[in-house]
Amino acid sequence: MKLKLKAFLVLVILLVFLSSTALTCTILAVGKDASVDGSTIVTHNDDSSSADFRLWIIPAIDWPEGSMRDIVIDSHNYIDYGDFPFVDVGDKGVVVGQIPQVEHTYQYFHSRYSFIKEMGVAMGESTAGVRRELREARGWIDCWTAQDIALERASTAREAVRIMGDLVEQYGWYGSGEIMNVTDGDEVWIAEFYGRDLWVAVRMPDDCVFVGANTMRIRDVDFEDTENVMYSPNLISYAVEQGWYDPNSGEPFRPADVYAPRSSGNIREWRAFSLMAPSMGYEYLDVHYPLWIKPDKKLSVWDIFTISGDWYEGTEFDLTKGIGAGPFGDPFASYRVGGRQRPIGIYLSCYVQISQIKNWLPPVIGSVVWFGYGGGGTQYHTPLWPAMSELPEFYQVGSRYEDFRRDSGWWTSTYVQEMTRLRFKDAIVDLRNFRDPKMQAVYQTVPKIQELATELYETDKDAALAIISDYAYNTAVAWQADWLKFGDYLVGKYCADRINFGTGLPKEWGELLDSLNN
Q1: Whose CA is closest to 453, among 465, 469, 436?
Q2: Residues 372-385: tens digit of each pLDDT
């Protein structure tokens, strides 16, 4: 009977785990007056357990008159983009139609999601639940298509939002609801897409920060402020038609409340805001937090990197503590058991991207993304420019559905992540001691590289682009080699030394297991 009960509990836990991996991404945004150097920052923890992790450069293209662009549902699975735009989607995507192509499309980075372009526009996304009736509607434009086309065509964040909104209004939305953070180095916009042809976007104040964690958040909107608000024409009227909002109620129309109502708090929102503005003293059980807040201090890329990998260390929810963390304080061991909370940084992350735009520099030099594979707390970040001429091969090889490869960037980072978990509380110290000084050195070098490239850009654009391309390429290659060696080091230190020493479990953990079995 006990064995059957244990098997049932394991099945329940597995089903809960699988059913909740679809809504797991977290995004952050930092306005230019809230950052230490005047840049804007948007992020995306792509927390997908099925994503195609490869990273591609989609080149700029001049299109012949009369060209058409395919609209493909599910276009970001394992499709070879090495010869873009001559991509055979096969059974990995569905072509649902075509729209007229523009004369020129810009270069951008394409992975599970597309996120930054050569001309200084960047974005992220967080999937969010909406009313069932909205999910059942099926249009042409999914999140991937919307972001791809916006990056291909837009020269500003405002224009990118408008392009996505126009596409949704004309062709309809496909899929779950989405929150997007969009920036161009000057403005930051937060947009929500609810399904059908319904959407709203608001400009964030320059001195504020935002977090999105799978729940719609745009509530109080000044619909008369056309400079800072954009929305679909029927955003309010459709809700009235459906009986979801009564204009005579005396209550303001709050888009998120109407189209994606929530009744409980979001602990990731609380955690991000408590790290960026601890003076606010927010309670973690609050149902609604402000859409954005002013941070207590100006934030750096390193600050945002740290938040992106957070697992509540030092709080009552610390995932390195308690029985759920296993014998070695592993925050990834089981955050779904015993009331443990889902953190911002999880081991399911395909990658974390932190896009930083410096609008006082030429766009091709001031647009950089800090990119890393795996869980935010156990990965490294290296700078990549979307204007680069080529990427190292390790970004474009391998598949999570094929064998482990030591020449694959995602597999190497996954290797280090999982080796760290062998004895986490000790190995994470080794990881930070190895990683953090190297990352800090790169943080200090990148602004100097950008300044040098900018000085040269006026007289020799090709040479300026070569400087950033060569630096990014060589830095990434060096990180890949060092990270692979570091994974081997962890195996030797925390795996091989167990061979002749029983289970390797701490004494206190063995005693706890004995007590549970009695």
Answers
A1: 465
A2: 999 999 999 999 99
